[in-house]
Amino acid sequence: MGMCVINKRFVILILIALSVVVTWYIESGRQEVSADLRSRLEAELAQDSTFPARPVWWDKGHRIGVGVIPDGSNRDSDARRVCSLMLKHGISPAEVEVFDVLQIQNDDEWVQVGAARCE
């Protein structure tokens, strides 16, 4: 019985290690998106009243967090709109996370209200 528990723990540790290695490998292969391309995307987002503020953060340009004024609904569709802009600019694969901008400004709380993968 004791041997079975040790083997399960070992297998779980191996799986965790593999997932970390695979994630690192995928991320290391991505080229950082240029500041110029980020600026162009931000300028397009600024023309859309759905996104009242500059993107709240970028991660290598392949993952972006944007803020919206909450209306109580799921905002995955807004994330998909940002995805379409990213794909238009050749940024793929990418991820978009949508946050309640009022919560960030007022309480410094990051409440995610939508997300999408851009592929």
TrEMBL record:
Source taxon at top rank: Bacteria
Protein known as: Uncharacterized protein
Native source organism of the sequence: Marinobacterium zhoushanense
